[in-house]
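Exercise: predict the fold of this chain.
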Amino acid sequence: MTTYDSADLHRAAAAGIRAPSLHNSQPWLFRLRDGAIEILADRTRQLPVADSGGWAVRIACGAATLNARLALTAVGTPAQVILLPDGSRSDVIARLTPGPQRPPTYLEQDLFSAVARRYSTRRPFWPDRVPAEVRVRLIEAARAENGWLELLVGMTALSGFAELAQSADRVLRRDFGYQAEMAGWVHLGAAPDGVPATAGAPVAEPHDLLPQRSFSERRRTPGHDFEPEPLVAILGSAADRPVDQVAAGQALQRVLLTATDAGLASSMISQPIEVPAARDQLRRSLGRRGTPQMALRVGYGSPGRPTPRRDLADVILP
């Protein structure tokens, strides 16, 4: 196989749009060009306040790239990937060209089947402990995409992270422009993007350890508190160039799909990444080289609902 065709493009885009994005803004486009599939940043959907530098766009498009790769691999036409092929100033995030044809591995099939089942769950998780072998799988998933995953072990590390996250959340809550922008992406009715108000966490209580974004005034059911010792993971990259952020998006999605395949629920805690001072403090607290790109809460929880997605006709360029 020397080129991809329209059917391949639609297959890749259908999986790509299932990736996560900040406020479900879905900042991606797809096109077929000279037999290659390209994932592009949709700058009209970049959040001007929360993402003025484009970090969230690159993370989201990297995650969409991983989904597209899995979709192509699932039908025996895996792609060779070049990230930012035209440089960091271009809107082309990734270019996928056909590699040697081969059947997918069992792992690739499992990850692809998890694409449609992955979504963020902002509700409390059950107290069940995530087994050691599953934790290892999550770490290996990040490493497979040239990222790293640090699992916070013990209440000392967890409390330190919680303090950072809560502090960053307070900074963002005091930013009227940030809050107004986020509110603009929350909706009560049907919409192809943004976050349904019902998808938010229940209103925060003083004893909550981690910050959760609440999109309504819904109170939690008595006795349904958040887990007292959640499993928190920090995903990072070796450096923080635009290409590293795209690669981190791929690593993030592989971790999320691995968690889904293992029967875990997950949600992202981006506040300490969005606030530069908190992000730098988090980096130093981990005591390792590299840059944190996302924080995750992982555990066992009740099923939720996937957030809406735009039609393929709206994201595929002619």
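Check your answer against the key: The first strand starts at residue 28 and ends at 33.
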